[in-house]
Amino acid sequence: MTGRQVLRNLARLHPDLPKSDRENHIQELLERVGLGDRGNDRVKGYSLGMKQRLGIAQALLGNPKLLLLDEPSNGLDPMGMRALRDIILSLRNEFNYAFFISSHLLDELQQMCDELIIIKSGKVIWKGPTAELIRDGERLEDAFVELMRA
Questions:
Q1: What average pLDDT score do residues 59-63 get?
Q2: Element (H, E) at 129
Q3: Beta strand 115-120 with 98-102: parallel, antiparallel or unpaired?
């Protein structure tokens, strides 16, 4: 199947999306995730990063207010990580989507997240603005290690 066909099939699960608007909505989503010119390519030929972006487009089909992403950058090369991060930030800033991201890639989180929740042994040990956790010039990794040692 192509990326477009995947989205067409899933769009049928969203009764609030009129048939007459589906194709335009699908093309718009492909554009938003950087696959506008690759929607007619077979998914089996997509890179891992392209598959991740198609997954985000799938999640956006129903116009959710919140997207949950579990380790979205895992396995991506630096260019794929940057492309995914840029898409997430664009969706947040331009379209007001909210994201809840679970990740161990702290440098990525530092670049994307306004708020953090850090959990240790099933208990929240930090919750608040990223800027409050990180001192000037400090990396999130340093603040994280300090919290884990406490």
A1: 92
A2: strand 123-129
A3: unpaired
Decide: 140 and 110 in contact? Cβ < 8 Å.
Answer: yes
- Given a contact cutoff of 8 angstroms between Cβ atoms, the answer to whether 57 and 33 are in contact is yes
Q: Tell me the pLDDT tens digit for each residue of 93-109.
A: 999 999 999 999 999 99
Distance (Å) of CA 107 to CA 96, 129, 147: 23, 16, 16
Cα–Cα distances (Å) from 109 to 7, 47, 112, 130, 147, in that order, read 28, 22, 5, 9, 16
Residue 149 neighbours by CB distance under 10 Å: 6
Q: Tokens 């406490």, residue?
A: 150
- Local structure of 75: helix, strand or coil: coil
For 27-45, the pLDDT digits (tens) are: 999 999 999 999 999 999 9
- pTM confidence score: 0.86
Sign of the C-alpha dihedral computed for residues 65, 102, 112 and 79 taken in this order: negative
Q: Which residue's entry shows tokens 């989503």?
A: 29
pLDDT at 24: 95
Both tokens of 130, joined, read 């990223």
**Beta strands 98-102 and 123-129, pairing class:** unpaired
